[in-house]
Amino acid sequence: MTYNLETAQHPENLRRVAIDPVSRVEGHGKVTILLDDQNKVHQVRLHIVEFRGFEKFIQGRPYWEVPVMVQRLCGICPVSHHLAASKALDIIVGAKKLTPAAEKLRRLMHYGQMLQSHALHFFHLCSPDLLFGFDSDITKRNIVGVAMAHPETAKRGVLLRKFGQEVIRVTAGKRVHGTGAVPGGVNKSLTIAERDELLKDIYHIVQWSREAVHMIQKVHTQDPGLYNSFGIFRSNFMSIVGNNGDLDFYHGTLRARDDNGKLLFDHVDYQQYNDYIEEEVRPWSYMKFPYFRSIGKEHGWYKVGPLARVQNCDQISTPFAEHERKEFIDYAGGTPMHAPLAYHWTRMIEMLHAAEVIKELLHDDDLLSDDLMVKGERQMEGVGVIEAPRGTLFHHYQVDENDIVTMANLIVSTTNNNQAMNEAIRHVARRYLNGREITEGLLNHIEVAIRAFDPCLSCATHALGKMPLTVELVDVEGAVVHSLSRD
Amino acid sequence: MSQTFSLDGQSIAFEPGQTILQAAEAAGVFIPHLCYHPEFKPHGSCKLCTVKANGRQTASCTMRAVPGMVVESNTEEINAERRALTQMLFVEGNHFCPSCEKSGNCQLQATAYHLGMMSPHYDHFFPNRAVDASHPEVLLDFNRCILCSLCVRASRDVDGKNVFALSGRGIKTHLIVNAKSGRLTDTDFTLDDKAAQVCPVGVILKKRQGFAVPIGERKYDKAPISAMTEQNKLTEEG
């Protein structure tokens, strides 16, 4: 747990390689690498280059507008922001406990989103690396290449995502940027026709999700030398866990463990998150660096997301996903798995769990109820936390007596993984780039490490994830030594 | 026996004293408009309802119908002008439909859809306008004001309160609240006022109600503005 390779001691004599933008991730980011004459790596940084400013322009707006406004942070998992904000504002309107229908409808919306986001990430963005190899033919290393070589896999990826989007549409009104959740509950329930339409497909969605877990499990276990060590670093990890320590994406208490799996804190009410987590600002990135207060900046950073969640919970409530969790834990050998590529395996276990929960919910008649809203004693401050596809998401608001938001603090999932992603790419740079001539395939290794975390770098969308990429090797005089680009 | 005039080649019957817009609405023909409201005297300010009557441009909400008059409304030329006017309204205020609670119930938005407005076209002014949240039941978001003056007319002519007024001139015209402090809470305005019911955009809003109506059930989700009767347009539920 060091900041090794974060800052070179004498950057003035080094060459700079930039991966700008990083491709097949959500949003815009870049990686810079400083190399000396022997191509030895001296500095590696993942930069988040866009400034968003949502926390500022939410201020001065009426609170009920916030759940709809903040979801514009992202086109991939807007539901996460929509629900985290709604949960914070439930506290503001005094809705301590939602009606069973409202809670289940929100949960359905969220698990639909988990399903679609995980499917999108695995099939559209990462399967080309995993199926063809990290430095395979770049012209085929994309979803179109997957569709040509493995048409059934690509088709399932598309249809799994589509199903998740349909779940969102019937609960939020739109596939992207709907309005389903409102402070104190939801604004609509399901019609029988909407429910039956989803019921028609859910059984094969569960089955396809099981097969997706088996596919990545096979890919991972067939090449343990690569998959257990690529980009590896040890760190603390954190997530919310539900009742009885269950894996829960919608609600629970905060739990954190150290790199050996020992509990650092547990059963923490997230209204008190500020007592446990602090954020550090570093001058070279717009993304902050959160850490556990009790441990401090240097060693207190952590990772979140599927790999953290699946190893942080005590069990999974649905049978197929629980079976797969046990397989994964057995494979890890009783200690936490830290390999970034294991994110893919755990992400598919989560997708399976999401599908199973959706199936359970669709058999619950509460989804058809009209008892959707509660109110209570008005509060001035509220925190909402949810497990977004990419990890723990915090929304914190203060609202004045005139209903206007006066303070907003968001710790988005990818921010929690900031240091972790930087550590992963530094490991990859040391292992694969050091002393070698830079090629596109080698640079893709860096991107593979970033993609494992499924970062949403500035919460923007890119349909095929194939953004234009230019990499330039520049010498100390600023002359381009070597250049690679794709359109 | 009623008299008639021609509107885009269609014969429209009218009663003496009716304006072109009133007669068209009665005949089920839509002419885009924003500042017109059947319960108030015409204001003639938004100019969206401009038509060509006997070859001359005029606001159809103020021009009385005349027997044998030839009126053009739904033409490419006039709709292009209406679209430009609508685009100007969008850029002069801060109209952020994606997070506006009036979205789906907003006459400006529905009109823009009707006119095929695909972009704001002009540079945004991004005016700096404060929100007045001082009233316990009503929020005023001046960012979205299009200066239709319906609230001014409703408060003055129906409620007898004169809570609102337009102040300033030309491009500096803006909506104000008639109180020394300038704040709504220092007036006798209530949710029951007619002025609380007539805003065609998202300026005068009942607090804590935003997004209560799901997508699909909002007024203009059900039918485009051109297919709505005047009465449906006036009711919140549509």
Could you describe the 3D structure shown?
The complex is a heterodimer of chains A (487) and B (238). Chain A has 487 residues and is α+β, with helices and mostly antiparallel strands. In chain A, 40% of the residues lie in helices and 18% in strands. Chain A is built from 14 helices and 16 strands. In chain A, the strands form 5 sheets. A 5-stranded antiparallel beta sheet of chain A has the order 3-2-1-15-16, covered by helices on one side. A 4-stranded mixed beta sheet of chain A has the order 8-7-6-11. A 3-stranded antiparallel beta sheet of chain A has the order 12-13-14. The longest helix of chain A is centred in the first third of the chain and has 33 residues. Chain A is globular and about 70 Å long. With 238 residues, chain B is of the alpha+beta class. Helix content of chain B is 21%, strand content 16%. Chain B has 6 helices and 10 strands. Chain B has a 5-stranded mixed beta sheet with strand order 2-1-5-3-4, with helices on one face. A 3-stranded antiparallel beta sheet of chain B has the order 6-7-10, with no helix packed on it. The model of chain B has no long low-confidence stretch (mean pLDDT 94). At the A-B interface, α2 of A face loops of B.
